[in-house]
């Protein structure tokens, strides 16, 4: 398939394909197009976002089967071949002979690259080493000063995964404040969010408005734009004293207060009713995985609030009420809340 045809066909499955480089389109045409066509025939949509438990299990199954077929003795050798220079040639030959790309992505309706990154994250023994010590944080700063954003090099020096060192560095690169937000910090956050939303909206409207009109007007945007897919690392840089996750959580709180006009939705009898509604609605959905929940639709179970607020409340509910919740599946957590916690909350109400 020629480049333009491939881009055009891929656009049906990946809306942002116009922003992808030519070399990436060529790779996707080889690795993904045939699979995407097959999923389309089966009525299955291509997915993005967080991987479900079912997809993670499918990746494990695909990796285990490939190791059995090839005799490669570990997932680490398969996915991090450069760590084993003496076996590199043999492993790469086996991967080519037994069609590693096709095998890894079997049964998963996502772009191959995302499946590969997910597999690397799941099977990297350097990815689960707990908190960074003070000494490790100092080492990380020193290595970054020497090697810049070469996370592969830094990860090898630190015996941590690429993703882990990159995320940790973004957290410690500046003096991050962990206490209550000051008035100045809150203002900086609000200005930063306004700036990125304004830029985005003005870019979209560039063809329909004159530049003088754009600079004077107050932009009108739908609510989703206020809390979905905001560039949090960019906002973190503009705020300067907070980590991106703190910025996201604070922005959700600000939005919730504005949307609800400061009402205490989760206190007293209102709070009990909100928890009851949330458990009942989640139980009625009968979903197997948190990624299948439409949190937007669920938000009115608590009140007129952003989806992140509902997700945060559900997280608190499971952590405080469900024993050993980390070892339970999503559906087991919901069943426990419905059968054990709900009657208690209703009696209390």
UniProtKB/TrEMBL annotation:
Report the GO terms under cellular component.
nucleolus
Can you give the residue ranges of the HTH myb-type domain?
124-161
Biological processes annotated in GO: termination of RNA polymerase I transcription
Tell me where in this chain the Myb-like domain is found: 124-172, 173-255
Q: Which InterPro entries match?
A: Homeodomain-like_sf, Myb_dom, SANT/Myb, TTF1-like
Q: Which residues constitute the signal peptide according to the record?
A: none
MF GO annotations: chromatin binding
Listed Pfam families: Myb_DNA-bind_6 (PF13921)
Q: Which residues cross the membrane?
A: none
Record PANTHER family:
TRANSCRIPTION TERMINATION FACTOR 1 (PTHR46760)
Name of the molecule in the record: TTF1 factor
> Which organism does this record belong to?
Ibidorhyncha struthersii
Q: Which gene encodes it?
A: Ttf1
């Amino acid at each position: 398939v020629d480049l333009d045809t491939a881009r055009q066909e891929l656009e049906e499955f990946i809306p942002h394909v116009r922003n992808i480089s030519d070399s990436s389109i060529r790779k996707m045409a080889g690795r993904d197009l045939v699979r995407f066509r097959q999923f389309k025939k089966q009525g299955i949509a291509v997915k993005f976002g967080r991987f479900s438990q079912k997809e993670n299990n499918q990746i494990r199954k695909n990796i285990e089967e490939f190791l059995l077929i090839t005799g490669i003795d570990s997932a680490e050798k398969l996915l991090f071949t450069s760590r084993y220079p003496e076996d590199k040639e043999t492993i790469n030959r086996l991967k080519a002979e037994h069609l590693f790309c096709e095998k890894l992505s079997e049964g998963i309706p996502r772009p191959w690259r995302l499946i590969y990154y997910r597999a690397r994250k799941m099977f990297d023994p350097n990815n689960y080493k707990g908190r960074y010590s003070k000494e490790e944080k100092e080492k990380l700063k020193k290595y970054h000063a020497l090697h810049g954003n070469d996370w592969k090099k830094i990860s090898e020096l630190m015996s941590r995964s690429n993703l882990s060192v990159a995320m940790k560095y973004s957290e410690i690169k500046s003096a991050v404040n962990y206490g209550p937000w000051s008035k100045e910090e809150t203002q900086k956050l609000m200005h930063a969010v306004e700036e990125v939303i304004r830029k985005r909206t003005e870019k979209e409207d560039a063809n329909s408005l004159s530049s003088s009109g754009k600079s004077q007007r107050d932009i009108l945007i739908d609510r989703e734009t206020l809390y979905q897919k905001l560039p949090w690392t960019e906002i973190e840089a503009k705020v300067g004293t907070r980590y991106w996750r703190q910025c996201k959580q604070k922005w959700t709180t600000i939005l919730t207060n504005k949307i609800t006009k400061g009402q205490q939705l989760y206190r007293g009898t209102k709070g009990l009713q909100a928890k009851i509604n949330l458990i009942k609605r989640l139980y009625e959905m009968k979903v197997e995985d948190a990624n299948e929940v439409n949190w937007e639709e669920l938000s009115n179970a608590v009140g007129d609030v952003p989806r992140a607020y509902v997700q945060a409340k559900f997280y608190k509910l499971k952590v405080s009420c469900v024993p050993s919740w980390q070892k339970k599946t999503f559906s087991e957590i919901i069943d426990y809340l419905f059968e054990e916690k709900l009657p208690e909350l209703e009696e209390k109400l």
